[in-house]
Amino acid sequence: MGMNEAKLQEILDQYPAKVQKNRKKHIFIKRSDVESQQIEANTRTIPGIITNRGCAYAGCKGVVLGPIKDMVHIVHGPIGCGYYAWNTRRNKAKSDDPKQNFINYCISTDMQESDIVFGGEKKLSKVIDEVMEIFHPKAITLSATCPVGLIGDDMGAVAKAAEAKHGVQVLSFSCEGYKGVSQSAGHHIANNILMEKVIGTGDQEEAPAKFPINLLGEYNIGGDGWEVERILKEIGYHVVSVMTGDGSYEAIKNAHTAELNLVQCHRSINYIAEMLETKYGTPWLKVNFIGIQGTIESLRNMALYFDDKELTLKTEAVIASELARIEPIFDQYKKICEGKTAFCFVGGSRGHHFQNLFTELGIETLLAGYEFAHRDDYEGREVIPTIKTDADSKNIPHYTAEVDEKRFRLKVSPEKLEELKAKIPLGEYKGMRFDMKDGSIIVDDLNHFETEEFIKVLKPDIFTSGIKDKYVIQKMGINSKQLHSYDYSGPYAGFNGAVKFAEDISMGFASPTWNFITPPWKNQPLLEGTVTEEGVA
Amino acid sequence: MAEKNKENVSFRNVNENPCNMCMPMGGILALKGIEQSMVIVHGSQGCSTYMRRHIAEHFNEPVDVGSSSLNEKGTIYGGEKNLRQALDNIRKVYHPALIGIVTTCLAETIGEDIERITGQYLIDKEMEEFPIVTASTPGYGGSHFEGYFFTLKRILMQLTEAAEKNNKINIIIPNISPADIREIKRMLALMEIEYVLYPDFSDTLDRPFAKPYTKMSNGGTKIADIRSMGGAVATIQMGITIEDGISPGKYLEEQFGIPLYNIAIPMGVESTDVFINTIAEITGKKVPESMKQERGRLLDGMIDSHKYNFQGRSVIFGEPEMVYGVTKICVENGVFPAVVATGSQIGRFNQLVTAAVADCPEQSKILIETDFSHILAASKEGKVNIGIGPSDGRYLTEKGDIPLVRLGFPIHDRVGGQRLLSVGYTGTMMLLDRITNTLLENKYKSYRSSMYEKFYQQG
């Protein structure tokens, strides 16, 4: 049973009129016979509509800063905010120096009522002193929570004084939870300050090895980044820095030395990618290491960019050997998955990326969407100039990078760049809509009510989402897969990740547990044979 | 305020790996135990999302909680418009019988008067009979433990009337597992008494699989029952550690003259005896034979295990009420509670625990308002060999090699937190077995080699 405009209207009719009018703009059914289909995104969630979105603090501290392992991330606020963002994203990190890996720590100023009344600056500055004494980190971040901005704590001044006192960088992020409309505001705030204060502060002028790249928007959930790095290193690339999964402050400082920036999650990191191009002349390439074909295509595009015979040969050799190894295993799983249907609703890029894996497994994606993406993530970057800046975006501090006169260097000639742009997505992202089939539905900021309604109409075999939906889906008798935390599995990126994903999804379908979902008394007699006066015959 | 002295309170400012969550979290849990209720968190939507995420991961259940999604504009002009909109939408989509509103740091810092806003809302909508309950629960106002009891008290203040006298006993429970709640109900059924159990999230947060799925789950304390709690014979409140200011049982006593029996969670022989005896005392009913048998079986098991238990040196941490209950079990079984800790600031805790451990041959270390860095340091100093508490204690295992018996809320890295049975005679036995077996498991791991080294290698 497919979706059509009439059925969609039936679902929306259940809303109060105002809500209906609003939600209608966030949903469309893909049609390729029209040139553009506009979606409303990155606008306020309607109060009382149960969204999966979080706050600016979650996007800044939770997503972008949290994975940087060799900085201590201090949460300035009441205890809850720190607690709730403690080890909840499964961004793995391993450090050569175990004393400089703070990934498992939750550090909070634990503001009390008196701090709200009298201000929390003194406490914050004491906490920084204590953190320096306990951990001796190379740098510190301070993330603001809702009350901080309201009571007017000047975190910037505290940071500045602490820098002078301790001689290490102390970065202050005004990512109060009420800023913007979702996590997305926090990504932007984090991007701005990493660009302004960290990137380019390293003293390397050139990368120490050939083919240096940065991997942007890879958060190493379940080890994704490690699998991607494995492949890249095997081909011969030098990974300067990863932002920010298993990321390191020391490495990010030298991110300016890369010759190419790879962008995995466009939503959370495109600001840094753009600014790196402006400041240092380094182009960025949209990659997608989710899915076998996605990985192959990304690798080939990188080879085209560097245009080096040996690198190209090695790329093809690695692809061939990886395929020979994994395809037979992958195909076994495909047999289980073939012909099934999926919903794919994740944060800001995976809602698109994971459709690759579903297609390769023979699973059709009926519905997809993002929690906190912008219009360009759905419709492609060409719509960016037409997006109006609203009041909510205006309260995110503005930062524009300027050309670094000393270090700016065109990595490829303008002519070559144009030539490449015709072939590969350099500085380009076409968005989710481009890859979706006609008749499939795209939903922005899907909520619990719509989740249930779309499931009832389209009856997908699997729903990939996060923990807040997981149990609704499972209670409806449908296979679910968490694509935020991977249900404590992974990696799902790269070649090995594709196999792991195929295995996990297949096992989800094949589990004997589902056989008991329909109780026997619903469709068959409880007892075989006939009941007579003496018992069962 | 908690009583502080140099012994048990940290003078550091930093909280390194917290042992508590914030007030609205407790408010949500309390409201989840009311029949057909929905909760709105008045504040930035991240609060609601984070708390739903943590509750869902512990209970493995859908946790629908609304938010008024305040943004920067709301911080300037107030959140009334957003809150009213949230109420409209929650009512339309969920058709709840009650809506509970808890606040956040944001709402409280900008000084939102939610009682006035909701009062006006009900007048404007001409639905003044509809129950909306409010609780001011700023994140900086206390831990989830205080938020839980404070919200329970607020619900009573807004719903409970001077009802006609009835034969029921109010049973007010802390944040225990759905399995624990069901066990308490089973015990009450065995005692053949009439009661109102408040709150009751044994079904709402541990729902059986059934088709079709419905947005609102069955179960929860009935609103009519909450209204009539003012006419009960007595209140038994498992809240021995809580202060009077947030005590729902104390409120019922002061407001309606209902005698309050404030007792510990029935964990361990003594505390369960107190629970059973209190019921017997109030109702004049005899303790049924089967209950006596359960007690006998617990004693039999305790004797069987005592030779292993005395080797245990425990660190107990989490919410004050649960920690106190576990401390009693440890003391009764010769597991020395070397460190007893909570992240909450609860005045009576120190005094109660001090009394509970008074007969131990060594001095226990009691920590309040603490974090895991202090708990770990004290555990190392106290040569602890077993931890009992929520899953955040995995930090003790990772950094201090202390095996952990997971108990309480939250349990995020294992399944089944909602099914852990630890109350009553039977539940105590099950928890004690988990403790004893964890001690044994660790002993077996290295017993032969350590014995060999001790007796043969040194000579």
Strand percentage of chain B: 5-15%
Strand content of chain A: 5-15%
Give the class-level CATH name of the domain at 212-338 and 379-430 in chain A: Alpha Beta
C-alpha Rg of chain B, in Å?
A: 23 Å
> Which architecture of the domain at 212-338 and 379-430 in chain A does the CATH hierarchy give at level 2?
3-Layer(aba) Sandwich
Cα separation of the termini of chain B: 57 Å
Q: What does the main sheet of chain B amount to?
A: 5 strands, parallel
State the largest interface. A-B, 78 and 72 residues
Strand order of the largest sheet of chain B: 12-11-10-13-14
Shape of chain B: globular
Number of helices of chain B: 17
Total of domains of chain B: 3
Largest sheet, strands/sense/barrel of chain A: 6 strands, mixed
Instruction: Tell me the CATH superfamily of the domain at 212-338 and 379-430 in chain A.
Output: Nitrogenase molybdenum iron protein domain
**Low-pLDDT windows of residues of chain B:** 1-6
Quaternary: heterodimer
Average pLDDT level of chain B: 95
**Any idea of the CATH topology of the domain at 212-338 and 379-430 in chain A?**
Rossmann fold
| Second CATH tier, the architecture of the largest domain in chain B | 3-Layer(aba) Sandwich
Let me know the average pLDDT of chain A: 95
Spell out the blueprint of helices and strands:
The complex is a heterodimer of chains A (537) and B (459).
Chain A: H1 5-12, H2 17-24, E1 27-29, H3 56-65, E2 71-76, H4 79-84, E3 107-108, H5 113-118, H6 121-135, E4 139-144, H7 146-151, H8 155-166, E5 169-173, H9 183-198, E6 212-218, H10 224-235, E7 238-244, H11 249-253, E8 260-263, H12 266-280, E9 284-286, H13 292-306, H14 309-337, E10 341-346, H15 350-360, E11 364-370, H16 375-379, H17 391-394, H18 414-423, H19 432-435, E12 441-444, H20 448-458, E13 462-465, H21 467-475, E14 479-482, H22 494-510, H23 520-523, E15 531-532, E16 535-536
Parallel strand pairs in A: 2-3, 2-4, 4-5, 6-7, 6-8, 8-9, 10-11, 10-13, 11-12, 13-14
Antiparallel strand pairs in A: 1-12, 15-16
Helix pairs in contact in A: 3-9, 6-8, 9-12, 10-22, 13-14, 14-22
Chain B: E1 15-16, H1 23-31, E2 37-42, H2 45-59, E3 66-67, H3 72-77, H4 80-94, E4 98-103, H5 105-109, H6 114-124, E5 132-135, H7 144-159, E6 169-172, H8 178-190, E7 195-198, H9 223-227, E8 234-238, H10 248-256, E9 260-263, H11 269-283, H12 289-309, E10 313-317, H13 320-332, E11 336-341, H14 347-356, E12 365-367, H15 372-381, E13 386-389, H16 394-400, E14 404-406, H17 424-457
Parallel strand pairs in B: 2-3, 2-4, 4-5, 6-7, 6-8, 8-9, 10-11, 10-13, 11-12, 13-14
